[in-house]
Every structure is written in structure tokens, then in C-alpha cells.
Amino acid sequence: MKLDPQSVTGGDRINALLLAAWEDLTLTSGLLQIGGDQGRYLDLSDVAYQNITKAWFCPVTRRVLDVTLRGVTPYLPQNIATEGLTECRPITVPVCDVIVRDFASDDERVEAAREWLAKHPALQEARIEGTWSDLNERIIEGAGFFRAVEHSAQQSGSRLEQYEALFKKGLINLMSCSTTMEMGVDIGGINIVAMNNVPPHPANYLQRAGRAGRRAETRSIALTVCKNNPHDQHVFHNTAWPFTTRLRTPGISLSSPLIVQRHINSMLLANFLRMQSREENSTS
């Protein structure tokens, strides 16, 4: 608006415009309805989707915006130097008609989508600007793609739980895991486990490979990359290694005085609590 909000005149005009917009949203159109505690909310039944054909390229975020106010980006920088940093460039977004057509096979549909993508100069410019990626092309093609996340101790517990829930629902289909997924996590629907090295012991291999095929999968695959070291090469030449090697018998080491003391303390506390429980039961 080219108004100075610090001046009296500019501040009054801006406040008048904001008040008029608020009244239009609440009183005239009723788009924002009254909720609890006198708050306002947008009823989702009033929301609709449509294809974008005329859009705006934001010079600040380099994103495609569906609407602007007088062609000015809503992501205004703090210090506006020139109009080139605020005015968005209008662009045309082509609407793909391939996805609504019927094809004899998926290969024909993908080929038709690629031909459509190749014949639009606007998309070529968008690729150069970085506003059109291979993910957009995958969506147009309707082909499958991977959504990958990292499941490791570097992530917070809440994020790991979120990843596991999305993975179970199929919203994440590729999970790069450390040993955090080796034990204690039971996720069904896994049909492929790929290990980027040979686990140190057969029990580790069986635990990791056992993540796949735990539900109703008709088949499962475990792939292992054997590196150029003695252990991996030994397993490469003896593929039955995890099934023929005898598992190590679990043992308890008493070489740590601190751990031994903790076990003694735990045993004494358990005996004390059992004695207290018996006395209370006999008294009652």
C-alpha cells in the first residue's frame, strides 16, 4: 500500500483496512464462525479445492503462491530495499489432463505423462528456478515413490514413535535404522530388510532379518551387503552362517564391583519388601 505505519495517517488507513477485512470475514460473509470462549474458527465444510492455473512466484521464498494481495508477497523482508523484493511474478500453471484418462497399462499412462511434461516450456523454466522437482513429476506420473526417514538414537523418543506409527500405516515406506530397530520393536507389514554390512553375531542377523515377514506377508527378503573385510567375506562364502553357527551361551560377568553391588542392593530391597508384605498380611 506504500503507507508508513509509523505516521498517524498511515496507521489510521492500515487499521481501517484491517477492520474492514475482519468485519467481512466475521459479519458480512460469516466465513469465520464463533466457537468456544468467543473464539473464531473456519468450518471445514466451507473449504473446497481447485486446480491452480494462475499463480505467483514469490521472490523471497521462491515458492509458488496461489493468491497475493496486489501482487505483493506476504513474506515481506524486514528491510524492504526495492520493489523487486516484494512484487511477485505472475506465472501460468498447466493443468495435466493425463491423470483423468484411462490407459491399457501403467506403462502407457507413465509414458503419456512424461510426454505431457516434456512439451510444456513453463515446466522447463520451473525446473531451472527450482519450483518444480522430480517429486512433482512422480505425482503427475502416478508412479510409486519412497518416503524415507532415519530411525536412530539421534532422534527423540516422540519422533521415533511418530515414525513407527506412520511406518505401520504405510505413510512411510523406507526406514533407515540403526540397532534401535534390532530388538524391542514389532512392526508388521515389512517385506524387505536390507543390511549395509554383516552383523557381528548370528543372533544380531536373525534379529534384524526377522523384522520382515512377521504378519501375513506371503514372502519376505533379507539383503546383506558384504564389505571387503574378513568377517563379511567369510559370510559371503558361507551364506548359511547365521543358521549353522552356534549361538553364544549367555553369561554373567562379575568383574564389575559396581554392577555386583547394584544386584545385591536390588536383592536385599526385594527381600525387605517381601517381608514387609508378609507382616502386613499376617496382621490383617
Automatic annotation (TrEMBL):
One of its GO terms (molecular function) is 3'-5' DNA helicase activity. InterPro entries: Helicase_C-like, P-loop_NTPase. Pfam families: Helicase_C. Residues 87-264 form the Helicase C-terminal domain. One of its GO terms (biological process) is interstrand cross-link repair. This is Helicase C-terminal domain-containing protein. It comes from Ottowia beijingensis.
